[in-house]
TrEMBL record:
Pathway: Amino-acid biosynthesis; L-lysine biosynthesis via DAP pathway; (S)-tetrahydrodipicolinate from L-aspartate: step 3/4. Signal peptide: none annotated. The record marks 50, 113 as: Part of a proton relay during catalysis. This is 4-hydroxy-tetrahydrodipicolinate synthase. Pyruvate binds at residues 51, 210. Belongs to the DapA family. Catalyzes the condensation of (S)-aspartate-beta-semialdehyde [(S)-ASA] and pyruvate to 4-hydroxy-tetrahydrodipicolinate (HTPA). It is found in: Cytoplasm. Its EC number is 4.3.3.7. HAMAP family: DapA.
């Protein structure tokens, strides 16, 4: 399947995994969230990306969340399964499972903590791509993983047939532009993974934004990405200004703590989150609530 056939472009939500207060997965709320995103114009959903708490879900739960999102989406929009792991073997097994469940693509974060070399990163992703015939999007988020995949490694991986994209969450626009230029004759697309700079990266040639903010403001993020893709810089900047403070406050504590609390405040999900993550600290609740009001989502 080619990237063109997938048409992964625009606002792509890295969706949360709703939970009850006891930490069990709230399947009914998950179904409602998927329907809401489709109605709000979200172009694609990442199931169990890092925002979806894969590090605290069991393998069975991980697969079940992906399966449920695919079922509800029912091919109306693409579903990208988060299948990254710090073990190459585990990443392959998760990606095989995603393909079997019917995912349209897989998103794989760089292996974390064990800190592979650039050659190790290349061999890791190449091995996953060789083992599973599924479109793969790489994910570089050094601020979270402690591992930074360099542009040269990403460009090298673009020669692997089914590696079709890269989520760049560095927030470094100079570096992002250099990456886009380096991939100009390749089949790999760049997606922003940084809400704060997403519209600017799209203006430089990225194809969309894999977003945390889209969880709570999907309509606005969809409009912003559409404007940026259409080259309407003035509208993109206007919309970006409207959500700039929200983008920032959604990272006042480790993601997905703030975004899950925001969705709870919006009465879209329950209050559940799994240890070692904890509910949003009291001092951040009023500022986040006020920002939700300011952008018109409550």
């Amino acid at each position: 399947m080619t990237q063109q056939a997938l048409q992964i472009q625009g606002s792509i939500v890295a969706i949360v995994t709703p939970m009850f207060e006891d930490g069990s997965v709230d399947w009914k709320s998950l179904e409602k969230l998927v329907e809401w995103h489709i109605k709000q114009g979200t172009a694609s959903i990442v199931a169990v990306g890092t925002t979806g708490e894969p590090s605290t879900l069991s393998m069975e739960e991980h697969a079940k969340v992906i399966k449920e999102i695919i079922r509800v989406a029912n091919k109306r929009i693409p579903v990208i399964a988060g299948t990254g792991a710090n073990s190459t073997h585990e990443a392959i097994e998760l990606t095989k499972e995603a393909k079997a469940l019917g995912a349209d693509a897989a998103l794989l974060v760089t292996p974390y903590y064990n800190k592979p070399t650039q050659e190790g990163l290349y061999q890791h992703f190449k091995a996953v791509a060789a083992a599973v015939d599924l479109p793969i999007i790489l994910y570089n988020v050094p601020g979270r993983t402690g591992v930074d995949m360099q542009n040269e490694t990403i460009i090298r991986l673009a020669d692997v047939d089914n590696i079709i994209g890269i989520k760049d969450a560095t927030g470094d626009l100079v570096r992002g532009q250099a990456l886009i230029e380096g991939l100009s004759d390749k089949h790999m697309n760049v997606y922003s993974g940084d809400d704060e700079t997403a519209s600017q990266l799209i203006g430089l040639g990225a194809q969309g934004n894999i977003s945390v903010t889209a969880n709570v403001a999907p309509g606005l993020m969809s409009q912003l990405c559409a404007a940026a893709l259409a080259g309407d810089k003035a509208l993109a900047e206007q919309l970006n200004s409207k959500i700039a403070n929200l983008n920032n406050i959604l990272f006042c504590e480790s993601n997905p703590i703030p975004v899950k609390w925001a969705l709870y405040e919006m009465a879209l999900i329950g209050s559940g989150i799994r240890l070692p993550l904890t509910p949003l600290a009291e001092q951040y609740r009023t500022p986040l609530r006020e920002e939700l009001k300011a952008v018109g989502v409550i």
